Amino acid sequence: MVSTEKATGSGPRTGANDPQHSMHRSLGLLDGVAIAASSTAATSSIGIGLGLMAGVVGLHLPVIMLLAFLPVLAIAGGYGRLNTAEPDAGSSYRWVGRTLNPWLGFLTGWVNTVGTVVFMAYTTTVTGSSIVQLLDLMHVRSVAGLRLDADSTVQCTLIGLVVLVGAALVAVRGLDLAARLQKALLVFEYVVLLGFCGYGLFAGDQPFSLQWFNPFAIPSMDALAQGMVLAVFCYWGFESVFSVGEEVRDPRDASRAGTVALVVMLLLFLLAGTAFQRVLPLDELADNGAHGLTYFGAMLASQPLAALPLIALMFSAVASLQSSVIPTARGLYAMGRDGVLGPVWTRLHPRHRTPAAGTLLITGVAVALALCAIAIPTVNDLISAAVNAIGIIVALYYALTAVAAAVRFRHLLRSSLLEGLRAVVGPLLGAAALLAVGGYLAWTFYDSTDHFELAADNGWFELSVVILMIVSGLPAAAWARWRRRSAYFVGDIG
To answer: How many separate domains does the chain show?
Structure first.
């Protein structure tokens, strides 16, 4: 652990201050908001996640989104404080490693990377599915004699992979271009969401009930735990803005951007959750799953207006693919800079100063995983399996980062009570809440069956995905510690 004085005064590491080995500081507050908001992908979460959550918590979508927001916001305070003290491309990997333990720090960076790659793999399928649905609305139902199917994992994955590669190439070109593209996509998405959801509040024929906002009306503890993990997953991604902390002109703008993005997400989720329940009966909401937003739009408007939510979903998926590549490549760049990964991850584009090699490599890994995921036959099953596993992983590394913030800034409890609440108490409470629901959900997966089966609804399969994500990092960490002899593991990093 480093002293508070050294950590607070530290900026990016040696190399980050060297113009020949650093990335451009080209981003402002709005750019950061665009990156964070694109990573959380509200439109995709609404279009896909609300249907999944409705199948778990029933007609309590608004309250489960509010309950999940509170610990995530508390943890965001810890992220913001850590970033202000030490903006770093490695973000949580760096902060947990310096403050708590390098092994925990490495595993934090590892599971974050693995979880994001899994997310990218299934989001390619979501992207392809939305494109196929849009083609169907345009009466293009076959290509070269092959009938298009929006629920075919094979077709949707192959189409989505083309989009993923394109998004990666734009990310290599530079964050300024990527941020401009994401801002344009976000404006369209939010206009469509606000228009349709706002109209749905008044046009829906399902009776409004205050029980939708009553946490005690959620059917069971199992439903609460799984609903919370799914909802936390919907907020996941706000921290991506901290991975570009070395490319933001003012570190405080990254902290503000993360908070602004979270608040915007909450308002959108509350609006959409209420509107969906006003328009769709529970069985229709739960049954439509990956096509929830499309079905919602079709209930409110006829073509061509009904196609707008689908186009917004497609834009959201494209933006989230790109905004997933960006922080992941930078996290691996930081790990390479510390010597825990090979030097290939530190290679910057000679002109654009982006981690180009890492961006293309991690895209290649996501492509390979997406092709492997074809073994799960339908889009709905693939999404369900991935979201539950990633939700538990996200709860774990959010909690570790929150604990790191509390330990690092514990002196604020004596010098500034308000800052102490924001950087110590709040993150600790948020970490406790996420660990509780994540642990409980993991137990329910274990207790739900007595055999293993490669199926999205098999608890042992879902739990094994989580365990594999974590355990796979141990050999990599051991290799970095004893084979590469990385200074990161002995505390000899600036």
So the answer is: 1
Please report, to the nearest 10 degrees, the dihedral formed by the alpha carbons of residues 134, 140, 145, 151 taken in order: 30
Adjacent-strand bridge partners of 146: 143
Under 8 Å between Cβ of 231 and 67: yes
Please write the tens of the pLDDT for every residue from 432-447: 999 998 888 888 888 8
| Alpha-carbon span 181 to 319, nearest angstrom | 8
For helices 92-99 and 102-137, angle between their N-to-C axes, nearest 10 degrees: 160
pTM to 2 decimals?
Answer: 0.83
Distance of CA 360 to the CA centre of its chain: 20
> What domain range is 181 assigned to?
4-490
Q: How many Cβ atoms sit within 10 Å of the Cβ of residue 290?
A: 28
pLDDT digits (tens, 9 = 90+) for 90-123: 889 999 998 999 999 999 999 888 888 888 877 8
- Stretch (H or E) spanning 478: helix 473-478
Helix ranges (DSSP H) in 58-174: 61-85, 92-99, 102-137, 153-173
Q: For the domain that residue 450 is a member of, what is the CATH number?
A: 1.20.1740.10
What three-state secondary structure class fits 453?
coil
